[in-house]
Amino acid sequence: MFLPRAAVCSVLVNAQLNSIELRKLFISSRNFIGSPVEEEVICIGDLYYDEEIPNILFPWLDKLADAGKTILICDPGRHGLSTAKMRFLTKLAAYELTANCCIENKGFKTVFVWKFR
Question: How far is it, in rounded angstroms, from Cα 66 to Cα 109?
């Protein structure tokens, strides 16, 4: 699976704009679902296009949260994040998208950053 350079650049630029020092940045296209993770912070973005994905992902995230990991999810609130799944999330921030992003995101005008549990 190809991981676009734009995704890496976006992480680096956002960290710099928010005065966050990235001591260790690990990016991979490998499927880690169900595996142990050493990193303290797990970021998941733009993934909830259907309900099957959170059904697979949330039990693993639950275990990671129990292990003290910080899990951040960025999504405009697609239908994959059902009401039942939303109870695990706390909204941390909301950002308005530009007109070009709205077209690419099927009309969603806002993207949210959520903390899992």
Answer: 33
